[in-house]
Amino acid sequence: MARFGMVIDTLRCVGCMDCVIACKTENEVPEGFCRDWITTEVRGRFPTLTMEIRSERCNHCDRPPCVTCCPTGASHVEDFGSLVLIDHELCIGCKACLASCPYDARFVHPDGYADKCTFCVHRVRKGEAPACVAVCPTRCMHFGDLDDPQSEVSKLLASRRSHTLHPEAGTRPRIHFLT
Amino acid sequence: MAILSRRRFLQIGSGAGLAAAVSSAAPGAGWADLLGPAAPGDRIETVPTYCDLCFWKCGAIAYKKNGRLWKLEGNPADPLSRGRLCPRGTGGVGTHYDPDRLTAPLVRRRDRGDEEWVEVTWDEALAHVADKLRALAREHGPESLAFFSHGIGGNFLKHTFKAFGTPNLVAPSYAQCRGPRDIGFQLTFGEEVGTPERTDIANARCLVLLGSHLGENMHNSQVQEFADAVGSGATVIVADPRFSVAASKAKHYLPVKPGTDLALLLAWMNVLVTEELYDRELIEAHGFGFDSFRAEIALRTPEWAYPITTIDPETIRETAREMARHRPATLVHPGRHVTWYGDDAQRSRAVALLNALLGSWGRRGGFYYPASLPIPKYAGYPDYPKSARGPVDNPDGRYPFADLGLTNGIRAATLSGEPYPIKAWFVYATNLLQAMPSQEETIRAIQKLDLLVVVDTHPSEIAGWADVVLPESVYLERHDDLNTEPFRRPFVSLRQPVVEPPADQKPNWWIARELAGRLGLEAFYPWRDVEEYLDARLSGAGLSLAEMKRRGVFEGAAQPLYFDDGVPEEFPTPTGKIELWSPQLAEKGFDPVPRYTPHQEPPPGAFRLLFGRAPVHTFSRTQTNPLLAEAMPENEIWVNADVARRLGLASGRRVRLRNQDGVLSDPIAVKATERIRTDCVYLVHGFGHTAKGLRRARGRGASDAQLVTRYAVDPLMGATGMNVNFVTLEEA
Fold first, then answer.
1. Which among A177, A154, A167 is positioned nearest to A61, based on CA atoms?
2. Domain count, chain B
3. Domain count, chain A
4. What CATH number corresponds to the domain at position B168?
5. What is the CATH number of the domain that holds B205?
6. Residue in chain A nearest B675 by alpha carbon
7. CB–CB of B626 and A31 under 8 A?
8. Using the beta-carbon criterion (under 8 Å), do B33 and A121 form an inter-chain contact?
9. Most buried in the list B134, B179, B220, B578, measured by CB within 10 Å?
């Protein structure tokens, strides 16, 4: 069983938000909501500065607190790619998952269910990359099986320095940022 | 709350179509996520076209779901997008659905600028415009009409107005944008940089950016190549008063004082020449006037530049040596929007000269030789009438090196009536009130007109001043002319309709042809519809419209790009050489080698107003696009963090900017940041809309154009430098 994840090269990323807009059109995310977003972290004093720009989204954690806390089983780990997905029919919109997510990756869709990034599972199942990865003009985003040592993502992780977000939360996030 | 939302969902579910009803009954965990946005049975169609969110014209594939526009992706066959659109192109979906679009032709009901309209039919609107134009032509001659346009969509209207007999055809993309750059390069190499820029960023080993903020300025191919260059470890050197996104990728960031880039360029050249690091072979073979150039540049030491630029001499030397180490694959980027200080052609010439010393022209990693596909023009047109009077924008060749029309020259002639009166403006797809400096002059000129017609997709500020507003369909709903701009490999791309316009909007080619018909110029439109025109042009090159409709893009054979590939080392200047010391400039009384002249400093307590681009917006035309407005609904005023603290301004606090002439901006939120010098403030261009009909954008952020009451005209070619205004910050 694959364990899908992302490796994002912050050195290439320019924070243009193409990933955000492509996700919105691909997934018809309603106005006022987004499943991915850009974070910019500036350190230092002018003019000696460093800046990291990150495209962020649900981390499809190996230990997903949103799944553990879900009272109905709507939030679950899908067999396909070990993705963390939501069954809209089972979701009662209680927002426990929203509160449990250290990445603030979830929102309540106007239709009443918890919503978030699916890694574009509908595209991945057809052999396509998620919309954000496919659109990125800087080609900074990579998607693949973290359990396959031959995958592009595994090779990138083995060859470059990287970090994850909130490792202290113990969620084992599957999005890695190359620095 | 959650239960209410859930209930709303059930109501929507029960009201939806059969596919939704079946789906909602389907069992299985996560079905909706697994299925994604397209359910089984949804009808998906794709149509290739090219984008119009900016002038880059990237090839796109439009997806329709059940006949409705769904999404846009890059066309993998297109050399500009390489299968990936920029965020604006991806968000192009929003242009079609934008509820703020113009829907019907409008005729002014009361005073100009009141934005009070009567809706009329196309027939009434066009008849009115044609009657007025015919009367003006009788009384003042056809030259009394001036046409302002932006982008390829202006081609057919330009054709109509050439047939009408006016030589006054202008675009702000010249005198308010890239004109000085192309003149600076022409004076040096005999060729311009052009569009898309012939910069070989992908292969550069060292990339130097002066104010050019690639990554925020989202010209797709350039940003893709920039990321490739960064990814492959190229050295990036950025000189900018602001720590741009590009600066964050740089090995060397030089926080240059605004307005002093020319001094920095001269000092870099001084290091290359005095340390003999330049491309001696090239300069000896092809340079003109090197000895005079060297004598002049010898004065411009890093120590001379230090107090001017605030960049310490060792940094100037180190970065110059770094450039030399990588030459000829060192690209000093020429920029695009370069109308800053009124000496912009000379600054651009200094950029060209620095590239000459580095030997990057015609070399891999520098400037390549682009080629365009030889698609013939449409053959069946009569000759345009010869105008007895030349254009009004540059009387007596006041700006001797201007080689295209000057918008500001037309405006000046409209105000003065000299050398002859301009009585009508026809404006296509350019919001002159945001694009040109001094809104006051523009409005005064408009008040002198007998007729102002604006073709636009939106009720922009310039449309608000028009007598007649003609609503255009957006690019996803229309054809335009073929794109054959020169690039690495010659190509042609097709724009074709994907969906129907939502109301009574019409394409520019239809407006141009209908207007020509009413002006007695039917002979200039021998084709029945635009497809016949496009097919005739494509057939002339052995292609067909039917094939292009399927493919969207056709690429020709690869051409040599560099001198090393066999491009002849020719420089079509008057001397046939790279003019290091310029006889052309000397003859006209200008500095034959650029010299730095200090610009006015901000008064105490004031800041120089700088403006630039954001990746999700183009000019002032995308702020009502629902997708792009959501990504960036308003601009912020960047203020150095220490300065903001001193002024008691935290991020998010609303202020107004007051310029040196007392003009007060709309409220704008402060961005207190380490990422900018203390002597300037910065905002993204295109916000602060005032037009009533731009409901989503109106009152969001501030407009730099409103504050650019002063401008410095380039004596070489007439462009308007706009970074010469100063502001203070006041509580909103």
1. A167
2. 3
3. 1
4. 3.40.50.740
5. 3.40.228.10
6. A46
7. yes
8. yes
9. B179
B258 with B324, same domain: the answer is yes
Chain A residues whose CB is inside 8 A of the B38 CB are: 122
pLDDT of B26 reads 40
Q: How far is B622 from chain A (nearest CA, A)?
A: 14
CB atoms within 10 A of CB B290: 20
Q: Which residues contact A83 (CB under 8 A, 6 or more apart)?
A: A4, A60, A77, A118, A119, A121
For B592-648, the pLDDT digits (tens) are: 999 999 999 999 999 999 999 999 999 999 999 999 999 999 999 999 999 999 999
Note whether residue B9 is domain-resident.
no
Residue with token string 């205004």: B725
Question: In terms of pLDDT, which residue wins out, B36 or B167?
Answer: B167
Output DSSP code: residue A129. P
Confidence of residue B31 (pLDDT cuts 50, 70, 90): low
Side-chain half-sphere CA neighbours of A32 within 13 A: 4
**Beta B553-555 vs B491-493: how paired, if at all?**
antiparallel
Confidence of residue B35 (pLDDT cuts 50, 70, 90): confident
Tell me: cis bond preceding B419? Omega within 30 of 0 counts. Answer: yes
Cα separation, B597 vs B58, whole angstroms: 40
- Are B359 and B293 contained in the same domain? yes
The answer for B 564-623 residues in CB contact with A (under 8 A) is: 615-616
Ordered per-residue pLDDT tens for chain A, 179 residues: 799 999 999 999 999 999 999 999 999 999 999 999 999 999 999 999 999 999 999 999 999 999 999 999 999 999 999 999 999 999 999 999 999 999 999 999 999 999 999 999 999 999 999 999 999 999 999 999 999 999 999 999 999 999 999 999 999 999 999 99
The whole-angstrom separation of Cα B240 and Cα B248 is 11
Query: Is B484 part of the contact surface with chain A (CB cutoff 8 Å)?
Result: no
Q: Is residue B435 part of a domain?
A: yes
Do strands B145-149 and B424-428 pair parallel, antiparallel, or not at all (unpaired)? Answer: parallel
Which chain A residues are Cβ-neighbours of B32 within 8 angstroms? Answer: 86-89
3-state secondary structure (DSSP) of residue B72: strand
CB contact under 8 A, B245 and A51: yes
DSSP secondary structure of B576-644? SSEESS-HHHHHTTS-SS----PPPPPPTT-EEEEEE--TT--TTTSTT-HHHHHH--S-EEEEEHHHH
**Average of per-residue pLDDT values in chain B:** 95
If asked whether residues B569 and B685 sit together in one domain, one would say no
pLDDT per position as a tens digit, B41-90: 899 999 999 999 999 999 999 999 999 999 999 999 999 999 999 999 99
Establish if B372 touches chain A: CB-CB under 8 angstroms: no
Residues B277 and B222 in one domain: yes
Q: Is B8 on the interface with A (CB under 8 A)?
A: yes
Which CATH number fits the domain that encloses residue A162? 3.30.70.20
Residues 69-88 of B with CB under 8 A from A: 70-74, 84-87
What are the phi and psi torsion angles at B223 (to 5°)? -70, -40
B16 reaches A (C-beta below 8 A): no
Nearest CA-CA distance, residue A54 and chain B, Å:
12
Peptide bond into A71 cis (omega under 30): no
Are residues B237 and B112 part of one domain? no
Cβ within 8 Å, pair A20-B8:
no
